[in-house]
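A.,

Following up on our hallway conversation. Structure tokens first:
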């Protein structure tokens, strides 16, 4: 039997100065590097499903998973791995492509999954020649690598942002091997809607009164609360408000419950809509001359928007739902910070931010333009616990050896329990979502109500109903909703499911299973 692995010569080592949660050991680090080496040499990451294995392992490792759990995760997920030489996934055909990709022909093989191994070998050479940072920046964003409709930047944002996520993990864990994987994954992906990006066509002019619209709420800014707006450009919450007000971005009707994402994209992404997406993204004013403080503000607001888009788009009086594709907005958002900090070119950094917002708005459109409801999200508990630990006030057992009442959720930090139940989840997206929320809560968990960027418009009115209530507890509230829906599996609950109905359409809520009980 011919060898079914490749040798890139790039070491599989990882390094992160400070892990998010302690718990890792020399054994777990050695194991995860061994598994990464197997993944690099023998597996194709040309599809979203195949890429999840490495990423779920790193997410669990970063949250303190012991070696035995990491091994169990890999053994369960390895069935989803495809051979590195897979040429036809549906038919499970494995065939080595007798092609050598090099600097003068690499663009000829783009968008074809069967050349994943060939691209991995090519990019391994480029990473060794240029270094990880320069290889990433050159092939993802430079004009030289994107001339003549090569669309590497658009491929980087494709596949529900999985190449971006893969690259984010690569830089977070200082892994040259994962940079190779991410570049190869980018190369074989389809370009995501090139005409939707601000660099993909003319940007329509914006009326002079744009940004003055509110949702009709009279909630006013407290006189003691500083209004947080951008010195130039609109905030993300204002841009989403504009999106809701845009007739051009009215979702496609009638609602088709069975439509695949590819069909929704084909129906929705007509020139009128992609032109409007370019206009909305331009309102964010992410230009190459952003100052460090302006960049930091845009990353901060992105995290709050990602949490609300993830867990705040359900309907009142109904069971909460978590959209599978909008979940990727959350899990990818943390890597905008990682990658923007790694990119040296100001032009490439602006392209990263603008491209990412294009993806966020596009997926909102493709999911039926669901309305964010910050007030609903802030109504969920900030002290989530598993069902077995939910007791009525006064019913808990006394704890005389402890200060306060350790049996009462209000006296406990919910995060250790949340992490403990996410780590053994079968679905890799659960642990990655918890990790994203945990990391962002570390940074912005103390932001008080009224101080979230874009909560108020220039007139001091809420941009959306409930944005005045948003504070740093939104991340733990979202984490509680996540485990309520996907399962507190650590105590024996069955695993839940992500919503794939495209919940922005009202008709997607007609199913009686989603009524509140």
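Then the amino acids I'd put at each of the 517 positions:
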């Amino acid at each position: 039997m011919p060898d079914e692995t490749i040798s890139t010569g790039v070491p599989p080592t990882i390094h992160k100065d400070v892990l998010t949660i302690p718990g890792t050991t020399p054994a777990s680090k050695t194991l995860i590097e061994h598994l990464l080496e197997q993944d690099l040499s023998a597996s194709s990451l040309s599809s979203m499903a195949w890429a999840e294995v490495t990423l779920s392992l790193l997410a669990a490792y970063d949250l303190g998973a012991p070696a035995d759990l990491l091994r169990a995760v890999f053994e369960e997920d390895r069935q989803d791995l495809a051979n590195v030489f897979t040429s036809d996934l549906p038919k499970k055909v494995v065939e080595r492509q007798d092609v050598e990709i090099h600097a003068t022909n690499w663009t000829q093989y783009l968008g074809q999954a069967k050349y994943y191994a060939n691209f991995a070998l090519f990019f391994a050479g480029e990473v060794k020649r240029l270094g990880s940072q320069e290889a990433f920046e050159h092939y993802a964003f430079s004009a030289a690598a994107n001339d003549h409709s090569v669309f590497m930047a658009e491929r980087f944002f494709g596949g529900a942002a999985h190449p971006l996520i893969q690259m984010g993990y690569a830089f977070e864990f200082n892994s040259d091997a994962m940079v190779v994987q991410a570049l190869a994954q980018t190369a074989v992906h389809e370009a995501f809607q090139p005409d939707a990006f601000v660099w993909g066509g003319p940007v329509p002019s914006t009326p002079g009164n744009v940004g003055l619209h509110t949702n009709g709420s009279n909630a006013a800014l407290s006189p003691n609360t500083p209004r947080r707006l951008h010195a130039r450009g609109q905030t993300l919450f204002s841009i989403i408000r504009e999106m809701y007000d845009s007739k051009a971005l009215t979702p496609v009707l009638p609602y088709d419950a069975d439509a695949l994402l590819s069909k929704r994209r084909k129906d929705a992404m007509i020139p009128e809509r992609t032109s409007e997406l370019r206009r909305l993204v331009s309102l964010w004013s992410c230009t190459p001359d952003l100052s460090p403080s302006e960049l930091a503000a845009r990353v901060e607001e992105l995290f709050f928007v990602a949490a609300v888009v993830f867990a705040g788009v359900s309907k009142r009086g109904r069971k909460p739902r978590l959209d599978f594709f909008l979940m990727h907005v959350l899990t990818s958002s943390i890597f905008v910070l990682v990658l923007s900090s790694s990119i040296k070119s100001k032009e490439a950094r602006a392209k990263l931010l603008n491209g990412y917002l294009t993806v966020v708005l596009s997926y909102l459109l493709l999911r039926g333009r669901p309305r964010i409801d910050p007030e609903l999200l802030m109504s969920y508990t900030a002290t989530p616990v598993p069902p077995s630990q939910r007791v009525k006030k006064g019913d808990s057992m006394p704890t005389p050896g402890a200060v306060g009442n350790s049996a009462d959720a209000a006296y406990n930090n919910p995060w250790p329990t949340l992490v403990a139940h996410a780590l053994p989840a079968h679905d890799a997206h659960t642990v990655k979502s918890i990790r994203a929320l945990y990391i962002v809560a570390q940074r912005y968990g103390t932001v008080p109500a009224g101080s979230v960027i874009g909560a108020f418009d220039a007139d001091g009115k809420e941009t959306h109903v409930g944005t005045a209530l948003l504070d740093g507890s939104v991340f733990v509230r979202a984490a509680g909703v996540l485990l309520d829906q996907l399962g507190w599996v650590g105590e024996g609950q069955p695993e839940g499911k992500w919503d794939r109905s495209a919940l922005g359409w009202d008709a997607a809520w007609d199913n009686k299973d989603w009524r509140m009980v």
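The first strand starts at residue 43 and ends at 44. Curious whether your intuition agrees with the design.

B.
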